Amino acid sequence: MNLHLTDSFNKHLPADNIQHNTRRQVFGSCFSFVSPKKTKNASLIHVSEEMLLELGMDLADSYTNEFLSIFSGNAILPKSRPYAMCYGGHQFGHWAGQLGDGRAINLAEITHNHKRWALQLKGAGETPYSRNADGLAVLRSSIREHLCSEAMHHLGVPTTRSLSLCLTGDEVLRDMMYDGNSAYEKGAVICRVSPSFIRFGSFEIFAHRGDTKNLKLLTDYTISEFFPDIEDRSKQGYLNFFNQVLDRTLEMIIHWQRVGFVHGVMNTDNMSILGLTIDYGPYGWLEGYDPHWTPNTTDRQSKRYRFSNQPSIGLWNLYQLANALHPLIEEATGLEAALERYKKEYVERYQSMMRNKLGLEKFLEGDNKLVVDLTEVFLLSETDMTIFFRLLAKTEKTDSSETVLEKINQAFYSPEEIKGKIKENWTAWFTAYLKRLQLQDVSDENRAIQMNKVNPKYVLRNYMAQLIIDKADEGDYELIQEIHSILKQPYDEQTEHHKWFSKRPEWARHKVGCSMLSCSS
Ligand code: AMP
Ligand code: MG
Q1: Ligand 2 mean position to 78 CA, how many Å?
Q2: What is the pTM (predicted TM-score) of this model?
């Protein structure tokens, strides 16, 4: 194993000068040096081959003891100095003070093929930022994060990645639904990979503490390392930086809405400064198209982070980042203009994304209404979002609306409900859709090809993740392998795997882990 170490975060930015690993407030520094915890009996469960290659390794490397030791936290890479990052954040709308890497430990940054990557263990033991928790992670949440980050990458959604999933051999106590029923679960560690794990909260902590010196150091560092086209370190440069973060955040959220992903905990400490999906916790996939759905039971009351709210929460979070950067820019006008731009561009980009999902080339008068009307008919009867768009691609211009309705029938959870008024509404929508298709000179075949590039056939449905977890808990890792491999080509037909192109089974409707997830992980 020959990784090319190019540590920069822990070399260029100020370190916590207290070296012992005790929980505390850490001032005036971006990180604390800390070592991963040794585990009882580590074993490797799964590795992402694509990620191995990206990092300059191959499968043979992953079979070595060295690999297992390093990626389970039992040894560190030669010449590396692992560390936990300091950040704050707004959680559920309120400033929460210092949070930081409570259970994540950055091993090193490496460069391969001119791309740089930070390697970070999650669940590798306590750090100065662990507050009142144990620094560990359990198997179920580690499987969910490992598989989903790779699945999102293959879906074309900007995301952090995951290299490996190890069992630690240690037991971890968790109260899964926060209802007083604690139980021991299997401990696990994943190795997350990203160009950087810097978050909105990394800037907010300095702004909230009035530490403009370190705010500037971190911002200058982030710009030079990750936004190299911004040359000046003036007000204009910082504003430019904010605009680029805003664009990337918006882009990421539009992708979430396209594939039906609900992050579940869009706190500002979980917002990557690079616009990558980060911190996969109680996330979920829309099955029945319900804009008000959130998988996170901790958010059951206000549903702050529900599917339809993600774009406006993205904006709210950008307001917090704007406030944090304000001391460097010292005037609000440019920041406010950027935030206004988000609102306008969101509408345009959302419409254009939905047009692509529907296979509509170019914008025509009436398209926005077609999109709005569709989201309204979706509400009349539980309709599987993924299956609906995939089957809609089979529409032929010469079809009658009745025929299209038959073609997408499989997307309905209760097809017997499609009668009377509900059926009339669906038929009316298909009639409008067919009429719209007549207005463009695109063959049915080409439209289907285009639609199938943006409408995935396979996503990591909540119940699929749970089936994988149940098997893995028994020591059977075949299903992880199988589903990981299907999710590498989510837009391909893969007819041999058709059984995963199916609606959520009834047993999963109200099951913990499938429709209900908490932050306990
Ligand atoms: P999350 O909601 O998972 O993004 O976590 C919010 C904060 O809690 C972050 O600072 C995490 O590092 C910390 N945290 C979550 N779980 C644990 C844990 N088991 N041990 C230590 N810190 C944790
Ligand atoms: Mg987090």
Answers
A1: 28
A2: 0.97
